[in-house]
Amino acid sequence: MMLIFFFNGLAFGGLGLAAYLQFRQGSDLPLNKHLRWLAAFGFVCGVTSWIDMFMTGDISGNYLQTLSILRMVTQPLTGLLLLKFGWDILRDLPLPAWTVFIPGVLIVPVAYVVTYAATTFITPSPLEIPIDIWSRYLLYLPGAIMAGVGFLRLGYAQRKQGLSDVANLLFGAGVAFLFEAFIVGLVVPAAPYGPTSYYNYDRVLYNAFSGENSALSMFSGLTAWLDYQRVLAVTGLPIQFWRMLSAFAVTFFVVRGLGVFDAFRKRQLRELQEERDRALKESIDTQVVARQTAERWTDVLININRQIMEMEDVDKILLYILKKARELLQANFVGLALLTNNQSNLELKCFSRQAATEIVGSPVGIHTPILLETYHTARTYCSTGQEALEQIHNLTCELSDQARSFGIVRLELDNRPIGILWATRSDELQCTETDMIWLECMADQVVIAIQHGLMTAQLQSLSITEERARIARDMHDGLAQVLGYLNLEVQTLGALHKQGKPEALSLELEKMRAAIQVANADVRENILSLRTTLAKEKGLVSAIGEYLDEFGIQTGIETSFSNDMQGEINLSSIAEVQLVCILQEALANVRKHAHAQQVFVCLSRQEEKGRESIHLQVNDDGIGLTDQPSKHSFGLKTMQERANSVGGSLDFNSTPGKGMTVLCRLPCLETERLKKNQALFTQEKISTL
Amino acid sequence: MNLREWALPVYTVLIQMAVGTLLLLWILRLFGRNKYSQEVIDRVVRDPLLIILVTIIFGMLGAHFHLSRPYLSFLAVRNFRTSWLSREIVFTMIFFLITAALWFFQWYRKGHWGLKTALGWLAIGFGFVTVYCMGHIYLLPTQEAWNTPETIISYYGSMLLLGVMALAEILIMDLRFNKVRQTEVLTEWVVIVKEAVKWLAVAAGVVLIPVVILNLAHLYWLRTGTALAQTSFDLLMELYKPLLIIRFLMLLTGVGSLFFPVTLMKRSGKTIQELFTPVYLACLLVIIGEVLGRFLFYAAHIRTGL
C-alpha cells in the first residue's frame, strides 16, 4: 500500500512539475495561464498521497494525528485547486449560450447537497470521514469532470486545426480526468449517510421505484461499484491501486498533451511565416501594379508632353488627355469645362466617354452645384458617397450614366481658376487619394497644353513679325536699293539720250543689267529662303539638302552637303528654325561677298561634357574676311544673335584669300536627362501609391 | 433525517420559491407597465415564467420521492375534505395548471394583457393557498414544536425571501443569456432589470428582518414552552447548534451578498450583468439557509403520543 501511495504521489508530483515548468516557459495559448492551478493541484495531490503513505506506516500517535489534520487540509485543497483548474479550462473555449443557465439549474441541487453535507458533520463519525467524502463529492468530482470536459474540448479544437497527434493526447487527458472523477470523486469511503450509504444499506431509489417488485431491483445493483469493498471484491485490487493507475494516466496524457504548446508555437511560426510570405507577395503584387500603373501614366504624360512640344493642335491634345484620363482612372465620363471668354460662366469644352471623345460643338453651360462649388472654393473634391442628389445633378451633362463616385479638380493658370476637370464612375468603386493625384496631374497637363498653345500662338505671331521685318530689311537693302539705283540710271539714260551719247548710254545699260541680275538673285534667294523655312514637314536634313541644291543652281556656286549625324536631329522647333536661318544667312554672305567657287556644308552631332549639340559648318573658298566692317560682318552678328537665342554659339574663322569657315553649335534636347526625370517620376509615383 | 425525507424540503422549498417569484414578477409587471413599454415588459417576464413553471414541476416530482409508492400519489387527493395534505396537493395542481396556462399565453404571445394579468394573480392566489395548506399540515397537536401559527407565517416569510432572491438571479441570468446569444437586448430591458434588482435587494433586506425575528421568537417560545418544547429547544441549542448558526449566517450573508453589491453598483462601476456572481451566490446561500431551516424544522420536533 505504501508503494501505491508513493507512486501515486510521484505521479501527481511529476504532473505538478511538468505543468509548472510549462507555465514558467510561457505561451500565448490560454491554457498556459491555467497551468499554475494544475501545477498546484499536482503538488498538493502528491503531498496528500505521501501523507497517506506515511500514515500507512508504523508511526506514533502524535505524528499520526498531525498527519491526519494535515490531510484534512490538503484533501479539500486538492479538490478546490482541481475545481478552479477545471472551471478555467472549461471556459477557455466559448461555451454555448444555453450554458449560462447551468448555474441556475444547478443552484437548487447544489444547495441541497451542501445542506445535506453540512448535516452529516453532526453525525458521530470522525471528522476526517465527512471531509474526505464531501471534498470528493463537492470539489474533486465536479473539478475532475470539468477538467476532463475541458481537455476533450481542447482536443476537439486542436483536431479541427489539423493537429491530430496533440488532439489525441488531449482527448486521452480528458478521458483520464473523467476516469479520475469516477475513481477518486465518486468512489468514497463507506459512511453512515447518503449518498455513500446508498451503496451499503440505504434503499431510497430501490424503495421508491422497485418497492416489493423484485423485477425492478436493478437499481441496487448499479450502485454497488461505488463502494471500496465492492471494488476490492470484484477486481481483487484495492481502490488505491486504481487511483494510482488513474494518476499515472492523467500524468502521462497531460504531460504528453502539453506538447500542444510546442505545436502551438510551431503553428504560430508557420502562420507568421505564411503571413510574411503573403505580405511579401502582396507587396510585390502591389508594387508591380503600381509600377505598371505609373508606367502607363508616365507614357501618357510623355506623349502629352511630346504633343505639346511638337506644337500639335491644343484641342487634339486636350482630347488625348481626356481619353487617357478616362481609361486610366477607369471612369465612365471625364469632362473639361473652361471659363467663357467673358469670364462669367463655365462651359463644357470637351468630354470623353466610352462611346466617344469629342470637342463640344455648341456651348453647354455647367450648372451642377458640386462642380460650381469646387470651381469657386476648392482645388479638388473627392466624392464621399454622402452627396445629396441635387448636389450632383447632371454631373455627366446627360452624356453618360449617373455618377456614383467622382473626383473634381480645378484648373488654375497663374493662380487664377480657368476651368475644371472631373471624372465620374457609375459603379461602386470610390475615388481614392491616388486617383485624385492622377486627376490633378492630368489637370496640370491640360493647363500646360492650354498655356503652351497660347504661347505658341504668340510665338508664331512674333516669328511672322520678325520674318516680315527681315524681308523688309532685305528688300530695303537689296531690291529697293537696286530699284533706286535703276531709277537714277534711267534718269541718266534719259539725259545721255538727249545728249546723244550712244557709247555712254550703252555703258549705263550694261550697269543696269548687272544691277537687275543682282536684284533678281536676291529675290530668288529670298523666295528660296522663305520656302525652306516654312517647309518643316519635309524634315530638316532633307530641307537643307534641297536648299543647297537650289542654291547651287541659282548662284552657280558648287555646293556639297555632308550629314554626319545618325538618328533624329533632336533640336527644339525654334532651334531648327534658327539653324536654317543661320545657314541661309551664311550662304547669302557667301553669294554676296565671298566670290567663292565652292561651298561646303557639314552637319554633325558632337558631345562635350555630357551634352550633345548639333554642329553646322559652312566652308567656302572665297576671298575671306577683310579688315573693314561691312555688311558681311553685320550678317555674322545676326547669325550670332540667332545662335545665342537658342542657347548655342557661333564662331567664324577666315584667312584673307583662303575662304571662310562658319561654325554654329546648337544644343540638343537633353534626352538622357529627360529619361532620368521620367524614371524619377515613376519612382515617386510608386512610392506615393 | 433519512435521505428519503429530504424530498420533503425539495417540494416545500421549490413551491414556496415558485410562488414568491411569481408574486414579485407580477408586481414588477404591474409597475413596469406604467413606466416602460408593454412589449419590453412582456419580454422581461417571458423567460422567468418558464423557469417558475419548471421549478413547480421539479418541486412536484421531488415530492414523489418522499412517497413509498409514487405511482399511487394521485390517490392522495381523495381526502380533500378532511386532509390538509390532499388540499395541498390539489391546490398545488391548480397552481401549476394556471401557471402553465399563463406561461402558454405569455410564451406564444396570445391572450389579452388583462387576461394574463388575471391569470397571474389567480395563480398567485392559489399559490398562497397552497403555502397555507403546506404549513397547516404541520399544525398537529402531537407535534408541539410545529403546532404554532409561526409555522405558517415562517412559510410565507420563506416564500417571499426565496422569491426575492430567485427573481433577482433569474432576471440577471436571462439578461446574460440573451447577451451571450447575441439577441438584440433592448436598452430598456437592461434598465428594467437594473431597477428591479435594486428594489429586490431592498425587499430582501426588509423581508429578512421579520424572518429572523420570527425564528428567534420561535426559539424563545420553545425555550419557555412545555417540557417537549424545551426538549426541542435543547436539541437545537446542542446537537444542531452549528447548523442553526450556519443557517442564520447563510441568510444574513446571502441577503448581504445581494444588497451591498447592488446598492453600491454605481460606486463600483459595474454593470448589472457583471453582478451575476454575487447575486447567484446570494441566492445559493439563502436557499442553503432555507433548506437548513427546513432540516432543523423536521429535526427539532418531538412527538407526543402516537
> How many helix segments of chain B?
10
Low-confidence stretches of chain A: 199-205, 207-212, 216-223, 680-689
Biggest β-sheet of chain A: count, sense, barrel? 6 strands, antiparallel
Tally of individual domains of chain A: 3
Largest interface: A-B, 29 and 38 residues
**Percentage beta strand of chain B:** under 5%
The H-level CATH homologous superfamily of chain B, spelled out, is Formate dehydrogenase/DMSO reductase domain
What's the number of domains of chain B?
A: 1
Average residue pLDDT of chain A: 82
Unreliable segments of 5+ consecutive residues of chain B: none
What's the arrangement of secondary structure elements?
The complex is a heterodimer of chains A (689) and B (306).
Chain A lengths: L1 H24 L5 H26 L4 H30 L11 H19 L7 H33 L3 H23 L17 H7 L7 H5 L5 H8 L3 H19 L1 H51 L4 H15 L4 E7 L6 E8 L3 E3 L9 H9 L2 E3 L22 E9 L2 E10 L7 H67 L2 H33 L5 H16 L2 E6 L9 H22 L3 E11 L2 E10 L10 H15 L3 E6 L5 E8 L3 H18 L1
Parallel strand pairs in A: 7-8
Antiparallel strand pairs in A: 1-2, 1-6, 2-3, 4-5, 5-6, 8-9, 9-11, 10-11
Helix pairs in contact in A: 1-2, 1-10, 2-3, 3-5, 5-6, 6-10, 11-12, 11-14, 11-19, 12-14, 14-15, 15-16, 15-17, 16-17, 17-18
Chain B lengths: L6 H29 L2 H27 L19 H24 L5 H24 L12 H32 L6 H38 L2 H11 L3 H23 L1 H4 L7 H24 L7
Helix pairs in contact in B: 1-2, 1-4, 1-5, 2-3, 2-5, 2-6, 3-4, 4-5, 5-6, 5-10, 6-7, 6-8, 8-10
Overall description:
The complex is a heterodimer of chains A (689) and B (306). By secondary structure, chain A is α+β, with helices and mostly antiparallel strands. Chain A has 3 domains: 2-94 and 101-190 and 227-257, no CATH class; 292-456, GAF domain (Beta-Lactamase, 2-Layer Sandwich), CATH 3.30.450; 538-689, Heat Shock Protein 90 (2-Layer Sandwich), CATH 3.30.565. In chain A, 64% of the residues lie in helices and 12% in strands. Chain A contains 19 helices and 11 strands. Chain A has helices spanning 2-25, 31-56, 61-90, 102-120, 128-160, 164-186, 204-210, 218-222, 228-235, 239-257, 259-309, 314-328, 369-377, 433-499, 502-534, 540-555, 573-594, 631-645, 671-688; strands at residues 333-339, 346-353, 357-359, 380-382, 405-413, 416-425, 558-563, 598-608, 611-620, 649-654, 660-667. A 6-stranded antiparallel β-sheet of chain A has the order 3-2-1-6-5-4, with helices on both faces. A 5-stranded mixed β-sheet of chain A has the order 7-8-9-11-10, with helices on one face. In chain A, strand 2 and strand 3 (357-359) form a beta hairpin. The longest helix of chain A has 67 residues, at 433-499. Chain A is rod-shaped, with a radius of gyration of 54 Å. The model of chain A is unreliable at 199-205, 207-212, 216-223 and 680-689 (pLDDT under 50). Chain B is mainly α. Chain B has one domain (3-299): Formate dehydrogenase/DMSO reductase domain (Formate dehydrogenase/DMSO reductase fold), CATH 1.20.1630. Chain B is built from 10 helices and no strands. In chain B, helix 2 packs across helix 5. The longest helix of chain B has 38 residues, at 187-224. Chain B starts with 6 loop residues before the first helix and ends in a 7-residue tail after the last helix. The mean pLDDT of chain B is 87. The interface between A and B is medium-sized, with 29 and 38 residues.
